Amino acid sequence: MSNHSDKEKSDGRKYFEEYKSKHNIRAQEYLSNPKKLQVLYEKANKKARKRKAPLEKVWDKLILLFELVRDWKNGSYKKIPKSSIIMIIIGLIYFVSPVDAIVDTIPILGLIDDVSVVGFILKHIDKDINDYKEWKSSTSK
């Protein structure tokens, strides 16, 4: 059973890496266009709030990602590597896309791949997320 799970993780990682390479230019466009990034942020935030139950496992960190993008976009937080912000943007593009590995119109199943992608991103930028979290708590005091 463990091998099956490892294979699924490997397949998910491979799928996301392919998706990332295809959408890197698109993410760069969002990076350089604050209005476009704002629309992406709003779509992702709306989708997440609408479908909170299936996202419960990653909810707090997902909201933290949204806040990080918002703070990066408005210029209040820039202490994140460009590669990490691009990875987050690619994840948001994936998250709002209704057609991805599992079509979002399939109840609950449609969000499984979204949760996997968010988890993958969080794992890869964990240090950046923790740095942001520390910054956020120190500025809110």
What do you see in this structure?
The protein has 141 residues and is mainly α. The protein has 6 helices and no strands. It has helices spanning 2-32, 34-50, 59-73, 82-96, 109-124, 126-139. The model has no long low-confidence stretch (mean pLDDT 77).
Q: Cα-atom Rg, whole angstroms?
A: 15 Å
The main sheet comes to: none
Q: What distance lies between the first and last C-alpha atoms, to the nearest angstrom?
A: 47 Å
The number of helical runs is: 6
The stretches of 5 or more residues where confidence is low (pLDDT under 50) are none
Order of helices and strands: HHHHHH
Classify the secondary structure makeup into a structural class: mainly alpha
Fraction of residues in H or I helices: over 70%
What coarse outline follows from CA principal-axis ratios?
globular
Number of strands: 0
Mean pLDDT, nearest integer?
Answer: 77
* Beta-strand share of residues: under 5%
Secondary-structure map:
Elements: H1 2-32, H2 34-50, H3 59-73, H4 82-96, H5 109-124, H6 126-139
Helix pairs in contact: 1-2, 1-4, 2-3, 2-4, 4-5
Outline of this structure?
The chain is an all-alpha fold. Helix content is 77%, strand content 0%. α1 (2-32) packs antiparallel against α2 (34-50), α1 (2-32) packs across α4 and α2 (34-50) crosses α4.
